[in-house]
Amino acid sequence: MYFVYILQSQKDQGFYIGFTSNLEKRIKEHNAGKTRSLRQRLPMKLIYHEQFQNSKDAKNREKQIKAFKGGNAFHKLIQSSPRLRRD
Questions:
Q1: Sheet holding 15-20, edge to edge
Q2: pLDDT tens, 47-75?
Q3: What does CATH list as the number for 2-80?
Q4: End-to-end CA distance of the chain
């Protein structure tokens, strides 16, 4: 299984989009400061994810979401999805 995910910084409210084969491990790595670009934006919170059978489909979906990041389609995705987490 592969996952496309969206994290939101609890510090600056910005977003990070990525994909992985181990979602739980990857989020822990991000919040441990192992992603240089996120170190100053920690902690990050998982707000959205989708599951895929193969890495090709996950990569393509990640690119699609990144292409409309910040636009209406992005906001609609994270606000109206039943996968949205509000923990």
A1: 15-20, 2-9, 44-52
A2: 999 999 999 999 999 999 999 877 889 98
A3: 3.40.1440
A4: 23
